[in-house]
Design a protein that fits this description.
This protein is an alpha/beta fold and 549 residues long. Helices cover 48% and strands 10% of the residues. The protein contains 21 helices and 13 strands. A six-stranded mixed β-sheet has the order 1-2-13-12-10-11, with helices on both faces. Strands 6-5-7-8-9 form a five-stranded parallel β-sheet, with helices on both faces. The chain has a two-stranded antiparallel ribbon with strand order 3-4. It is globular and about 80 Å long. The structure holds 6-O-phosphono-beta-D-fructofuranose. 6-O-phosphono-beta-D-fructofuranose is lined by residues 156-159, 208-210, 213, 216, 269-270, 355, 507, 510.
């Protein structure tokens, strides 16, 4: 089934949602909660180890049914079919989008251009397992016959953010290999990352889908030169492996063909951590945990594929996000995990969400007349409470926020976890209810504040509340639940792309800067600044005059 190109603003649901918005824009969540004691019962989804309570949103049953109608009129059901069955839904690059196949069972029989890709997927998985087992148990050694102690992942964007985020997130399950990540072409970052490493016991994993990315190739080159200061050319195969679709370029770089872990053009960079791009994850936590991550993601895939849309976590979260983005005019969304382990989740999802849905041309090739991709940002709680929560509580912008928390801590520290989770619940309650004038006045009485001082302070101390949040309460942070969580957001991205009628799986917008950087690099090398806009010329000349290296 092909994906249809439907302008969302032309649907009946959109028009009805616009009318409905006029009734809802000033609706009070506090009043809706007061009027309906069973609101959470109505607006939550419980699935496996996940409880998603979305009752703290500015919605009623009509809102939800109109949003579901929008999904239905946008052809979401057939789009989901196309997504999972390998249709070339990435039309501008004429590719299928099949990261879901990487976590499917071998028997799934997923086809690309009539060829079942599962045997290849499992061959690479077996290669990952064999390789990681050898490095972890020390049977595969470095050039001086010592076991490996460190792994350095060299990649950028999707070839860095996913593995870096997961390695951090699963730190509790880590073995004794230390994994570092080099991404930025900033040479200082490279040198800092190499500090203290012993070339005899360090494995380098070069990850680049295209193997043409300037940052990764420069960094790999520099790291190889650093390695060759201690080792010989013939030692390179023992210490350098690569993950790429571009086998020719990898071999040209000098990496042994046996050390190449292939991937496929039907896996987008920002959705690739499930492929061999996740090699450093598997090295850090062992293949069993890597496989657990894939299993958790596959479970979420099944949920997304089969659950009715009103009980479908990615669908409901995507629709709520459309409600705020396209009707309330919300400019951004925040993501606040109440665990330090997920400190890199927001930066990881920034690529997933913003590179996918930051588009302004619809699937018919016309400029869109409505808002698309949301801006996503966030930091773990409770740190973020002491940083930017002021703006979410009392600023002028509406910032729908996802709160992600876990019932069980990993080290079992009850005192800390009770405190952490009391903050988790308190924040969504505060964002919902705010603090009324009457409550503030009552506090003043208790504190003995009265007269002019009380009158002056009153408006500053009132919180309007009515700020929307979703609460994702998950039993425990494991490889499986993490896999499900990441897949949830991947599918949310997909649903929103379908509704906004855009192509979510290309990224032409990052190309122009890359092209210009290449020609500016020539000018920096030659010292001969060519014609640019006046500002760029001015800056380049200033830089060239001052630089001393
Ligand atoms: O930033 C653009 C981009 O193409 C991303 O989509 C991708 O994840 C990243 O560059 C790295 O690309 P590669 O894996 O080919 O080096």
């Amino acid at each position: 089934m092909a994906m249809e190109n439907i302008n969302p603003t032309g649907t009946a649901a959109w028009t009805e949602l616009q009318k409905h918005f006029a009734d809802m824009q000033n609706a009070s969540m506090q009043e809706m909660f007061a009027a309906d004691k069973g609101r959470s019962e109505k607006f939550h989804i419980q699935w496996n180890d996940f409880l998603v309570d979305y009752s703290k949103n500015i919605i009623n049953e009509e809102t939800l049914s109109l949003l579901l109608k929008l999904a239905q009129e946008s052809g979401l059901a057939s789009a989901i079919d196309s997504y999972f069955t390998g249709d070339a839904i990435n039309r501008t690059e004429n590719r299928a989008v099949l990261h879901t196949a990487l976590r499917a069972p071998e028997s799934a029989g997923v086809e690309v251009n009539g060829v079942n890709v599962m045997p290849e997927v499992y061959a690479v998985k077996n290669k990952i397992k064999g390789f990681c087992d050898g490095i972890i148990n020390g049977s595969q050694k470095g050039y001086t016959d010592k076991a490996f102690t460190h792994v350095v992942n060299i990649g950028i964007g999707g070839s860095d953010l996913g593995p870096a985020m997961v390695v951090d997130a699963l730190a509790y399950y880590k073995n004794n290999l230390e994994v570092r990540f080099i991404s930025n072409v900033d040479g200082d970052h490279v040198m800092e990352s190499l500090k203290g490493l012993n070339p005899e016991t360090t494995l380098f994993v070069i990850v680049s889908k295209t193997f043409t990315t300037q940052e990764t190739l420069s960094n790999a080159q520099t790291v190889r030169e650093w390695f060759l200061k201690s080792a010989k050319q013939e030692d390179v195969p023992k210490h350098f492996v690569a993950v790429s679709t571009n086998i020719q370029k990898v071999t040209e770089f000098g990496i042994d063909e046996n050390n190449i872990f292939p991937m496929w053009d039907w896996v987008g960079g920002r959705f690739s951590l499930w492929s061999a791009v996740g090699l450093s994850i598997s090295l850090a936590v062992g293949f069993e945990n890597f496989d657990g991550l894939l299993k958790g993601a596959h479970d979420m895939d099944e949920h997304f594929k089969t659950a009715p849309h009103d009980k479908n976590i990615p669908v409901v979260l995507a629709l709520l996000s459309v409600w705020y983005n396209n009707f309330f005019g919300a400019e951004s969304e925040a993501l606040i995990p109440y665990t330090q382990y997920l400190q890199k989740l927001a930066p990881y999802l920034q690529q997933g969400i913003m590179e996918s849905n930051g588009k302004s041309i619809d699937r018919n090739g016309n400029p869109v007349q409505y808002q698309t991709g949301t801006i996503i940002w966030g930091e773990p709680g409770t740190n973020s409470q002491h940083a930017f929560f002021q703006l979410i509580h009392q600023g002028t912008k509406l910032i729908p926020t996802d709160f992600i928390g876990f019932v069980q801590p990993l080290y079992g520290n009850k005192d800390h976890h009770d405190k952490l989770m009391s903050n988790f619940f308190a924040q969504t309650e505060a964002l919902l209810n705010g603090k009324t004038e009457a409550q503030v006045k009552a506090e003043f009485v208790k504190q003995g504040i009265d007269g002019d001082k009380a009158a002056f302070l009153l408006p500053f101390k009132v919180f309007t509340g009515n700020k929307p949040t979703n609460t994702l309460l998950i039993d425990k942070l494991t490889a499986e639940t993490l896999g499900s969580l990441i897949a949830l957001y991947e599918h949310k991205i997909f649903v929103q792309g379908v509704i906004w009628n855009i192509f979510s799986y290309d990224q032409w917008g990052v190309e122009l800067g890359k092209q210009l950087a290449n020609s500016i690099l020539d000018e920096i090398h030659s010292g001969d600044v060519k014609q640019h806009d006046n500002s760029t010329e001015f800056l380049l000349n200033y830089f060239l005059k001052k630089k001393e290296y």
